[in-house]
Amino acid sequence: MRQGITERHWNDMQGRPEGGHTFGVGFAIAWQRGPLGRGDLRDPANGAFVEDIIAAAIGRIEFYQASEFACLENADALEALKHAATRLAERTKAREARGVEGTHAT
Fold first, then answer.
1. Are the CB atoms for 48 and 28 separated by under 8 Å?
2. 100: CB partners within 8 A, 6+ apart
3. What percentage of the chain reaches a pLDDT higher than 90?
4. Which of 2, 16, 21, 62 is the most exposed place for a label (fewest CB within 10 A)?
5. 41 & 53 share domain
6. pTM for this entry
7. Do 59 and 90 reside in the same domain of the chain?
8. Within 10 A of 14 (CB to CB), how many other CB atoms are there?
9. Are 24 and 16 in contact (CB under 8 A)?
10. Residues spanned by the domain of 23
């Protein structure tokens, strides 16, 4: 299923995920490197987040569903991707509530 995809994921000195890249035919993803920070110290993003890539996939499959290629399998894939997006949004909300969003804190 992952034909033609190459990826390299990096860790910082403490072994925490810190950037990387994923390439395939027709796409190149540079992943976010490091936390964004909080408040006045918040930096702009320097790479993609998983949430962004899921949103792009949702948009493409919705495009298919609005065409002659609409099918049950696409609908099922959309449901799964939307569930993944919801769960990641819930994770972000919980991290924000704990005051750790944008940091390496868990």
1. no
2. 106
3. 87
4. 2
5. no
6. 0.90
7. yes
8. 7
9. no
10. 1-48
CA distance 106 to 102: 10
What single-letter amino acid sits at 31? W
What are 21-60's pLDDT values in tens digits?
999 999 999 999 999 988 888 999 999 999 999 999 999 9
Question: Which contiguous run of DSSP H or E holds residue 21?
Answer: strand 17-24
- Token pair for 5: 């995809």
Cα–Cα distances in angstroms (integers) from residue 10 to residues 41, 59, 70, in the given order: 23, 28, 38
Regarding whether 22 and 64 lie in a shared domain, the answer is no
User: CA of 103: how far to CAs of 32, 33, 37, 43, 98, in Å?
Assistant: 13, 12, 6, 11, 11
Q: Same domain, yes or no, for 54 and 29?
A: no
